[in-house]
Amino acid sequence: MKPEDFAGTEPRFVVEEYFQGKTRAWGIFQDRFGKVRRQFVVDIDGNWDGQTLTLTEDFRYADGEQDRRVWRITRNGENGYEGRADDVEGVAVGAAFGQALNWAYTLRLKVGDDTWRVAFDDWMFLQPDGKLINRATVSKFGITIGEVLIFFSKEK
Question: Fewest Cβ atoms nearer than 10 Å: which of 6, 51, 83, 113?
Answer without folding.
Answer: 113
